[in-house]
């Protein structure tokens, strides 16, 4: 299709402000009389807080916050799921610390220096308790319980053997399916705890208002859910809680929930009666959230003609000290697994377990990269052991157009209407480096090259024909001003991928306006309707879907008003951009000389007191179409040092119509870097004796990829499949999380192709490569 602005590379609306350092993030907010706050965090993984002596800190003039100062309200930071499916176990400040780094008190003072000195003056009496630092041990009778009971919705439920929740799903008859198989292959895969490492650590600024309310500037992916939780915890009417939408310095899922410092900052501000600013240090942030670690056992049955006939997956997830979103995670993991290949008869058994570690939460893919690593490694193993071509085997069994898709687990199902899997596999398989690949046995010498393939997907939102366990709708306002310019008001957070630009382009396309005549307004929770969250790769498909829905209402209203002025039926009117005049006009079809500019229509509507040409509405997408990706990654392994380089990568995506093609490519390249970190370097595991991070922050072992570890730009190839999603705005789907999901799998498959060693545990560090090559590795096989 031919579009005026959709699919065009245009300047970002926030580009100049960000490049010049003028964009305001939460950490930039300064309010007169503002106090600076810091948090005191537990040095123990499990301990009762017997008492906190604040007298010395208060003598310095500091405002102190301890558990007795905050409401005894139990909540879950994440309020995306429906209440009856939401487990709650967290308090603003607990009387029992359940992981190293959990905030147990806070102080605020006139300067940061004074706040830190006051913090050091706090005297805490702890009763140290036995710590549980291994998920499998946590389920044994010898393990100390982290909780006796928690809340599920408003109901109290017992916690047995530290098992936070379980999900078990059986489709068909797996036993009968395995009986039909000619080959049955089973392996176990282990995925690490990884810190989000978003650019912006968490910030909260709270200003108490004269009417008993609060105004908040915070790091978040969801201004409305923050508003609702703050209102609930502190019993403040929502009309008196206002959360400002701020620029966000990346997130990767780390702010899907209301971050733990937000209610602490709010409580301090209410106690002090003046504004308070609380900024997390990077170390504080590392002790606040991680990616879900998992152990996945996968068993798959296949026939001689390369048809999958049965599968069985068992997943154990260590969620850490609090359940942020473990129950929906297990449902999603089941969905990622169920919708990747046609397993026929299959089962899923998932368990999430409490341990005295940093709480795990969503991180770019929400369980999908973990499942993908297990499945795509397994598919590669089956192809090798059974003599199938790895691309053809995938092509023969993938879930695609016309098939049922589990968007966010078994309660969110829809039918796939667009799919570029065939095209992407064909394009990648036609590349010379794939066609000319050799088996590991044919390679020798110090440096050995290999190439691996993996494919994946993610949902575009969480909607289905029927609402499921996850709330999913967005709101928007579009308003035509009297000079013909347009304001777009959306609460959807842009995490850096260009969701805001997509909203502007969609409105400009609907109203046939120049891109520079449409702008995003600065908004907050008082000026916008509800949006659930920027998560689940829903920004363009759902958030901008709402913008499209509202823009079309504005277009109808514009044509109606123009019809009154021109004395014509709105049905025979149309919008057109006139380049020579740099203006958009409403004109009579077939008689273009009878026309008015959009600005003239808006101004006359004002003069005639008809009203502003604007609309506000909410909209729920009734599908969550998969955005597909495929990675062909080439590696070079130095068998003397174990170091693995990535000289080339081909990243193929199916995201429907590319609204922002440059940013789509950026998402793919950025996610390659993130995925290589997950595959090769990153790990934020806890010391099994002390519960502290083994990497000790960034001091020792938490390497992340830099430009030095990435292929040269000329060796990075991006390809967009030619698809159109009929339910998406102008045919668009998402890309964000999908872009990462199969990177680690393709990397591991490439390492196998290079040296004949199959790794079942991430990260694949140089030490592990060397150990495997010399026969001393664990979680690796020479084949």
TrEMBL record:
SMART domains: Ald_Xan_dh_C. It comes from Anaeroselena agilis. Residues 20-130 form the Aldehyde oxidase/xanthine dehydrogenase a/b hammerhead domain. The lineage of its organism: Bacteria, Bacillati, Bacillota, Negativicutes, Acetonemataceae. Coiled coil: none annotated. This is Molybdopterin-dependent oxidoreductase.
């Amino acid at each position: 299709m031919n579009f005026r602005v959709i699919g065009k590379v245009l300047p970002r609306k926030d580009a100049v402000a960000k490049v010049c350092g003028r964009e305001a993030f939460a950490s930039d907010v300064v309010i007169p009389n503002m106090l600076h706050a810091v948090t005191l965090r537990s040095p123990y993984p499990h301990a009762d807080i017997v008492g906190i002596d604040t007298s010395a800190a208060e003598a310095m003039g500091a405002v102190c916050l301890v558990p007795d100062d905050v409401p005894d309200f139990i909540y879950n930071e994440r309020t995306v799921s429906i209440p009856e499916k939401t487990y709650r176990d967290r308090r603003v400040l607990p009387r029992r610390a359940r992981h190293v780094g959990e905030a147990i008190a806070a102080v605020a003072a006139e300067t940061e220096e004074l706040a830190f000195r006051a913090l050091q003056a706090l005297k805490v009496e702890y009763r140290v308790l036995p710590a549980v630092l291994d998920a499998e041990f946590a389920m044994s009778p010898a393990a100390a319980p982290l909780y006796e009971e928690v809340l599920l919705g408003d109901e109290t439920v017992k916690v047995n053997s530290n098992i936070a929740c379980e999900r078990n799903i059986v489709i068909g008859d797996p036993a009968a399916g395995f009986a039909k198989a000619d080959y049955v292959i089973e392996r176990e895969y282990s995925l690490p705890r990884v810190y989000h490492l978003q650019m912006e650590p968490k910030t909260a600024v709270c200003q108490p208002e004269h009417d008993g309310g609060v105004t908040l500037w915070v790091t978040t992916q969801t201004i409305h859910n923050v508003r609702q939780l703050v209102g609930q915890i502190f019993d403040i009417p929502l009309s008196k809680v206002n959360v400002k939408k701020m620029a966000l310095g990346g997130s990767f899922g780390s702010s899907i929930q209301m971050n733990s410092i937000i209610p602490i900052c709010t409580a301090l501000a209410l106690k002090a009666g003046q504004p308070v600013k609380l900024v997390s240090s990077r170390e504080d942030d590392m002790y606040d959230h991680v990616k879900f670690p998992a152990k996945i056992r996968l068993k798959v049955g296949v026939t001689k003609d390369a048809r999958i006939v049965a599968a069985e997956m068992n997943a154990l997830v260590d969620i850490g000290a609090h359940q942020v979103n473990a129950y929906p995670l297990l449902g999603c993991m089941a969905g990622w697994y169920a919708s990747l290949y046609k397993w026929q008869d299959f089962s899923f058994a998932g368990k999430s377990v409490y341990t005295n570690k940093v709480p795990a939460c969503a991180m770019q893919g929400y369980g999908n990269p973990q499942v993908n690593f297990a499945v795509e490694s397994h598919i590669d193993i089956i192809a090798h052991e059974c003599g199938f071509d790895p691309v053809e085997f995938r092509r023969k069994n993938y879930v695609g157009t016309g098939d049922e898709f589990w968007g966010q687990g078994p309660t969110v199902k829809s039918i796939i209407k667009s799919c570029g899997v065939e095209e992407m596999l064909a394009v990648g398989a036609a590349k010379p480096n794939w066609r000319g690949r050799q088996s590991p046995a044919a390679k020798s010498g110090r440096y050995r090259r290999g190439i691996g393939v993996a494919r994946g997907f993610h949902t575009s939102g969480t909607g289905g024909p029927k609402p499921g366990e996850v709330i999913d709708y967005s709101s928007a306002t579009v308003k035509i001003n009297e000079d013909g310019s347009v304001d777009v008001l959306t609460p959807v957070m842009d995490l850096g991928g260009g969701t805001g630009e997509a909203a502007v382009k969609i409105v400009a396309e609907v109203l046939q306006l120049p891109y520079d005549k449409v702008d995003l307004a600065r908004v907050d929770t008082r000026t916008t309707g509800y949006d659930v969250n920027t998560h689940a790769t829903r920004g363009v498909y759902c958030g901008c879907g709402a913008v499209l829905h509202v823009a079309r209402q504005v277009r109808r209203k514009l044509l109606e008003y123009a019809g009154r002025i021109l004395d014509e039926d709105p049905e025979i009117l149309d919008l057109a951009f006139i380049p020579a005049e740099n203006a958009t006009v409403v004109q009579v079809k077939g008689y273009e000389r009878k026309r008015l500019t959009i600005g003239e229509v808006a101004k006359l509507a004002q003069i005639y007191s008809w009203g502003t040409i604007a609309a506000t509405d909410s909209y729920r997408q009734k599908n969550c179409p998969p955005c597909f990706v495929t990675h062909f990654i080439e590696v070079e392994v130095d068998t003397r040092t174990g170091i693995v380089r990535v000289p080339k990568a081909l990243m193929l995506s199916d995201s429907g119509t590319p609204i922002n093609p440059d940013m789509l490519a950026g998402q793919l390249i950025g996610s390659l870097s993130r995925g290589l970190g997950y595959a090769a370097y990153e790990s934020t595991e806890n010391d099994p004796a002390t519960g502290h991070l083994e990497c000790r922050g960034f001091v020792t072992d938490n390497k992340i990829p830099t430009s030095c570890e990435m292929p040269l730009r000329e060796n990075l190839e991006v390809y967009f499949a030619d698809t159109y999603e009929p339910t998406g705005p102008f045919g668009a789907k998402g890309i964000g999380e999908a872009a990462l999901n199969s990177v680690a799998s393709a990397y591991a498959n490439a390492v196998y192709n290079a040296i004949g060693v199959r790794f079942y545990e991430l990260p694949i560090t140089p030490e592990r490569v060397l150990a495997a090559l010399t026969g001393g590795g664990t979680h690796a096989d020479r084949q």
